[in-house]
């Protein structure tokens, strides 16, 4: 390139690149007169409105208004910045880019040069006799030669100087220390291999530069996973594993699947979930956000279902939500990380889980409901105070308000005071709920607010009693004192008797009579049909949700095909009933 500067190179690349050829690598073009047309790759359409003018070397879409030259197309399609697009096109057409002397001698370039030498060594070691245990491990995880080649997997032998000896004479030792591939003993100053007896996962950035490595120990040993340290070329908070290979999948699916481990990413790609990327053993950072924003604003989070995975999910949600991402969460059965789940249930099974991914607020709500006792008002408030900080991050007040009913249903909240306080907290984006007065609102120990208010409506309002007795289903109320009272009320009505507290109290057991007395004595607003119906809908929704949860647990346990089909049929029916109940409540 001699003395050419950057502007000269841009013009040489622009003159050398064939836009029609480049575009044809991504989408099929059809000749139409002197131009070429296709379905636009940048928005969804049924009639082609994307045109390429080979003479002018320009493209334009009449549907979405996007257009430009070859650099613009590559930047849009590959989600690249201009320098990356220039480097990619220059490489394709064999045009060397000018590199300043200062850049050639930078620490970053030194690290990249060492990494290029190291990856060849690791890959070679995997194929040698010493790599047999690593090959068996990879085979046990379902990885064949093609996958190993695609991800450039390697092996670091169990020794202190294998890589060090390989690099000797090729790169200065200090450069290998800069790259984090050699570590130095403080006492003696001697260097040794950082990665030993580990399967090696090379980490590439969006420019396909080998910036670092991850190593998974073979057999027992700690730490289980070891990454390159922070270097001039590598930062865990600025890179995501598998992103270069996931770009196309993210573009096609319109979202990204975020997982934890190297093997999770590879397993999902093998199963066709090519939009998966992985964090590198660090918390989700602003650097990760910048990377993702280039590709999508929709993220599916699927971390391991153990306690550490749930904690990582919450930390990631905080960062993603603060930066305006649309987030859903995949919940896998206990003990099943994405890698294991795909190997057991296949790509279709995992895609089904993706389709069932819950909006992040609903995921958190159900996760909290599984840990906190929400049978009593105090527990409900505790549970709400875990969820509200995440709900407060939603900017849209309509979206925030839309979650109130879901929270009330999952946590079984029917008490008027608690519901009012919840609605106010959500509207004001508060992160905690004021429990003042709400705990005292529960009228009877062991009985939900909705059950007590339903009894009150049946006892105190003749119109409500006649309507509600016709609407109550046998399973709406769990067996116990409340069910006994409702049956006694029904018997009195069928006999044509007046429904009074003394009469009903005389027709039930002592525990049910005590409950009826407490309900009558508690201060409360006048009973009404509207309130009674609201309580009944809440009870019914809770029952249907419980049944849905029981069916899901049985599905996760597996079984004969006929049983699974029946459970799925029942699940669909329950889901329709729940949706119908929600629609009725909203109307």
Report on the structure:
With 587 residues, the protein is α+β, with helices and mostly antiparallel strands. The protein folds into five domains: 6-92, DNA Primase, Chain A, CATH 3.90.580.10; 102-234, DNA primase DNAg catalytic core, N-terminal domain; 243-356, 3-Layer(aba) Sandwich (Dna Topoisomerase Vi A Subunit, Chain: A, domain 2); 364-441; 449-586, DNAb Helicase, Chain A (Orthogonal Bundle). It has a five-stranded antiparallel β-sheet with strand order 1-2-3-4-5. Helix 3 crosses helix 4 and helix 22 packs parallel to helix 26 (529-556). The N and C termini lie far apart (71 Å). Mean pLDDT is 85; it is low at 436-445.
Summarize the structure.
By secondary structure, this protein is of the alpha+beta class.
CATH level 4 superfamily of the largest domain: DNAb Helicase, Chain A
Radius of gyration: 32 Å
Number of strands: 16
What class, by secondary structure content?
alpha+beta
Counting structural domains, the number is 5
Q: Tell me, what is the CATH class of the largest domain? A: Mainly Alpha
* CATH domain fold name of the largest domain: DNAb Helicase, Chain A
As a percent range, the share of helical residues equals: 40-55%
Largest beta-sheet characterization: 5 strands, antiparallel
Q: Outline the low-pLDDT stretches.
A: 436-445
Shape, principal axes of CA atoms: elongated
Lateral arrangement of strands in the main beta sheet: 1-2-3-4-5
Per CATH, the architecture of the largest domain is Orthogonal Bundle
Q: Beta-sheet strand percentage? A: 5-15%
Quaternary state reads single chain
How would you state the average pLDDT, rounded?
Answer: 85
Could you tell me how far the N terminus lies from the C terminus, measured between alpha carbons in angstroms?
71 Å
């Amino acid at each position: 390139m001699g003395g050419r500067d950057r502007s000269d190179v841009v013009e040489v690349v622009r003159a050398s690149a064939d836009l029609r050829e480049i575009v044809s690598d991504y989408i099929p073009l059809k000749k139409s007169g002197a131009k070429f047309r296709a379905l636009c790759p940048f928005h969804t359409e049924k009639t082609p409105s994307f045109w390429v003018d080979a003479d002018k070397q320009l493209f334009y879409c009449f549907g979405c208004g996007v257009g430009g030259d070859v650099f613009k197309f590559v930047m849009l399609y590959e989600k690249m910045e201009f320098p990356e697009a220039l480097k990619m096109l220059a490489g394709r057409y064999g045009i060397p880019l000018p590199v300043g002397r200062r850049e050639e001698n930078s620490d970053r370039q030194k690290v990249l040069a060492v990494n290029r030498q190291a990856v060849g060594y690791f890959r070679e070691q995997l194929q040698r006799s010493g790599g047999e245990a690593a090959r068996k491990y990879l085979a046990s995880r379902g990885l064949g030669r093609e996958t190993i080649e695609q991800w450039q997997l390697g092996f670091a032998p169990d020794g202190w100087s294998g890589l060090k000896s390989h690099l000797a004479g090729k790169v200065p030792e200090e450069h290998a220390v800069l790259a984090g591939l050699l570590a130095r003993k403080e006492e003696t100053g001697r260097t040794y291999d950082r990665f030993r007896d580990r399967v090696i996962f090379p980490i590439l950035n969006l420019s396909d530069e080998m910036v670092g490595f991850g190593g998974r120990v073979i057999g027992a040993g700690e730490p289980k996973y070891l990454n390159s340290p922070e270097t001039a070329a590598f930062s865990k908070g600025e890179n995501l594993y598998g992103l270069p290979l996931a770009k196309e999948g993210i573009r096609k699916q319109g979202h990204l699947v975020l997982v934890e481990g190297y093997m999770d990413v590879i397993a999902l790609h093998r199963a066709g979930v090519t939009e998966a990327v992985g964090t590198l053993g660090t918390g989700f950072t602003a650097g990760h956000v910048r990377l993702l924003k280039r590709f999508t604003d929709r993220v599916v989070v699927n971390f391991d279902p153990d306690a550490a995975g749930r904690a990582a999910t919450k930390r990631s949600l905080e960062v993603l939500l603060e930066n305006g991402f649309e987030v859903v969460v995949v919940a896998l059965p206990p003990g099943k990380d994405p890698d294991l789940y795909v190997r057991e249930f296949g790509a279709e099974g995992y895609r089904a889980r993706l389709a069932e991914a819950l909006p992040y607020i609903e995921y958190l709500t159900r996760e909290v409901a599984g840990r906190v006792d929400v049978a009593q008002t105090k527990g409900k408030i505790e549970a709400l105070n875990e969820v509200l900080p995440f709900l407060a991050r939603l900017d849209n007040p309509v979206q925030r308000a839309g979650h109130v009913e879901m929270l009330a249903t999952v946590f079984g909240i029917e008490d008027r005071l608690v519901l009012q306080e919840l609605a106010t907290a959500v509207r004001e984006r508060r992160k905690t709920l004021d429990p003042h007065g709400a705990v005292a609102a529960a009228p009877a120990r062991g009985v939900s607010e909705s059950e007590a208010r339903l009894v009150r409506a049946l006892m105190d309002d003749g119109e409500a009693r006649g309507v509600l007795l016709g609407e109550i289903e046998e399973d709406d109320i769990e067996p116990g004192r409340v069910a006994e009272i409702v049956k006694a009320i029904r018997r009195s009505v069928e006999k044509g008797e007046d429904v009074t507290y003394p009469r009903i109290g005389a027709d039930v057991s002592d525990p049910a009579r005590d409950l009826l007395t407490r309900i009558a004595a508690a201060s409360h607003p006048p009973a009404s049909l509207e309130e009674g119906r609201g309580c009944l809908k809440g009870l019914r929704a809770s029952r249907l949700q419980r049944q849905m949860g029981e069916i899901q647990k049985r599905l996760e346990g597996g079984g004969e095909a006929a049983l699974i089909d029946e459970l799925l049929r029942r699940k669909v029916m329950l889901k329709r009933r729940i949706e119908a109940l929600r629609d009725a409540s909203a109307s």
